[in-house]
Amino acid sequence: MNTIKAAAVIFVLAIMVAGAGWLDRQAVPQRARAMRPPVAAHLLGSVVMGWLWLLWLGLSARPFFAAAAALATLAVFVLISRVKHAYLREPLVFSDLGFLPTLLRHPDLFYLGRASAAGLGLAVIVLGGLIAAWTSVEPSALGGTAQLAALALVLLVAAGFALRPAGLAGVLAPLEKPLMETPANVFVGTLGLSVSLVAGFVFWRRDGKRAGPGGMAGVPAGESPYRAIIILQAESFADLRREGVPLDLPNLDRLRRGAMAHGRLEVSCYGAYTHRSEVEMLTGVPFARQRMDRFDPYLRPQKLAPASLARALGGAGWRTVFLHPHDARFFRRDRAIPRLGFARFIGEEAFAPGDRFGPYVGDRAVARRIVEEIRAASSADEPLFLMSVSMEAHDPYGPGRLSGIADPVQQYARHLANADAMLGTVAAALDALTDRSLLVFYGDHAPILPGHEGLADDTATDYLVLECGWTAKQSARTSSTCSPAGINGLLRSLLAAGRQPATGRGVPVGRATTSMMRSTMEK
User: Fold this and answer.
1) Where do the domains of the chain lie, and which CATH numbers do they carry?
2) Which residue of 65, 209, 334, 437 shows the fewest CB atoms closer than 10 Å?
3) 3-state secondary structure 218-270
4) Could you read off the pLDDT of 256-293 as tens digits, one per residue?
5) Dihedral sign, Cα of residue 335, residue 337, residue 338, residue 344
6) Closest Cα to residue 243, out of 415, 456, 402, 481?
7) 440-482 per-position pLDDT tens digit
């Protein structure tokens, strides 16, 4: 390579790095790009672009093509991030890259229909044509040995990031606080997408050798006053009557009047990432305290497993059952759920084709199966902890989803009516089959509902905590905003308080309970 060509390559690389610095921050809308990135972010961004350039150089042996391809690679990630943000109000994070197998198995859950597949195929064809045209114009600048050396260096750098995270984390220390303590929109808007992806992975790898965050207080020893604890996580459930959506929820309205706690539930997601809510509910570890595991807690479930309420109750002799009528591999639940302390996982294989309502297993069928589990545990005189994660109301909504109902809002209302029926059925079963039991019902996240995009700005759902059973008495009603971790803390406090002499339903409620829930949310 002569001097003039070398200077041209350096000039192009400088333009590439400068362009990447601007492009990197386009992964979120303008309003999220508030703070100036630290110097470490600029340096890491340059390293990432250099690595991409070296990768494409090793593959093509053409330095100018490699620069364009590196920018194009970043642009693809930025585009994916913007598309994700348009739907979920959250940019791409490093753990999203682990969803590729799930995306291929369930493209419908990611809004990837035939039109999207056709568009993607066309884009691949056009891109292939552009690559062929460029490489036919720009001559090869490297021999085979030099190409192999470039690719070897690419692998060496990648291995260093993957296998030596502790040392790199020290160098990237200025990036840790934004990544750990600010929302994804903020740290991606500040640091840039490529920097956030790489640094997030480094800190996640580094934290793998550290103890996980502690949960709430453990379950007290001794016989429990409750014979069952049932947690119903209802897919996309939010009481949108406050938004003017006509909903018929008689069971929710009736049970709220006797609930020991109910109100708005502040969740960490909108439109997706169900497992974030369920993990916070199970462990009592607030979303903000889960560090880089918070975006996909099932990527490394053993980190939060010691704090799991299911694990604690299983160790105390309870039956522990997890029910999710869908592919157990989704979010890697098949590996995560046993680690969290559940002895049994009831998946979609336990349901018949006729149990579906729309694309997924219906909530009424789920309720029938839960009643069977309550009855079996009662007959065996064993306490039961069961968590159900429903699926019926999962989006997308639109024509073809439900026979005779084309309007998305009407479809959603029908699904919520079934969720309400599920709530009523399970509550009635607990009243009939247990002397004292606890029932938790809540929505995992607000729905992506056409015509109601404003839900992305107020993502809180709804919850209630109710004591059931033939010895249950009317509770002092408490209405308050809570978090899934707060409900976990409430359950643990009820398990402890139920062993003490008390009035009413046998548990202290009201001001003390509300105070405890608020303190849990603030942690």
Assistant:
1) 3-207 (no CATH), 228-522 (3.40.720.10)
2) 209
3) CCCCCCCCCCEEEEEEECCCCCHHHHCCCCCCHHHHHHHCCCCEEEEECCCCC
4) 999 999 999 999 999 999 999 999 999 999 999 999 99
5) negative
6) 456
7) 999 999 999 988 988 998 999 999 999 999 998 767 666 889 9
